[in-house]
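Fold this sequence, please.
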Amino acid sequence: MIEVVIAVLGAVVGASALVVSIAGHRHNVRQAGRLAERERRIEDREREADEREKLVQSSMLHVTMAGSPSVLADGYTQWRLEAVNTSNQPLAQVTVRYDGVRLDGREILPAGGRFTADLPMTSATGAPPSPLLGSVEFTDTSGRRWRRLATGRLQPRADGTGDEADWHAPVPPIVGPLPVPLFRGTPSGGPYPQRAAQPKSPPPRPLSERAHRPAVAAVIVVVAAAVYLLVRYVG
């Protein structure tokens, strides 16, 4: 009889251990999934922050087109493309183009500097130049080559091609308020926008009480069954 009790008790213990093992495995799988998802979100935020950081200085080059009555010929308007560096670092190899044609360039555009290139004069009654055809190419302090379009978008230069015509698709710049000095016509340098602090991810949650309940119930069942069998068959 004692052999039967031991066999039954062993079977109950084995089944209970299996239940506890399955419950623990399921919890570990869910926990691993949550950790993987959290890591993926952190990597996405870091990648977005890195991409945004690349656009900080290039977004601070402002390009405008303006016209004024010509002092050389009555009835004509002198149009100009103007680039203003509102960052606190210089830009290098600045080139102003209109409809793909190089108008003028500077080796260095200092912080707060302004660079103006004249366009062909037009009659006061004629159509003005199209701002959509104007662009400014420049190199930031990190060595990246950019093209600022009249639409406000930025085109990064393709790395390692050596071809001036090889540019990536336009990307939106970092949008911010118009600098007051630029609005007043006297541009000056300004600090870089501060990189937003990334929120810290909360630590992994411990095994909840609800997850503990199946294991506790299984242990209680095992103990109760063992006590019952011992009292009935041994006592």
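Confidence is low (pLDDT under 50) at residues 181-195. The radius of gyration is 35 Å.
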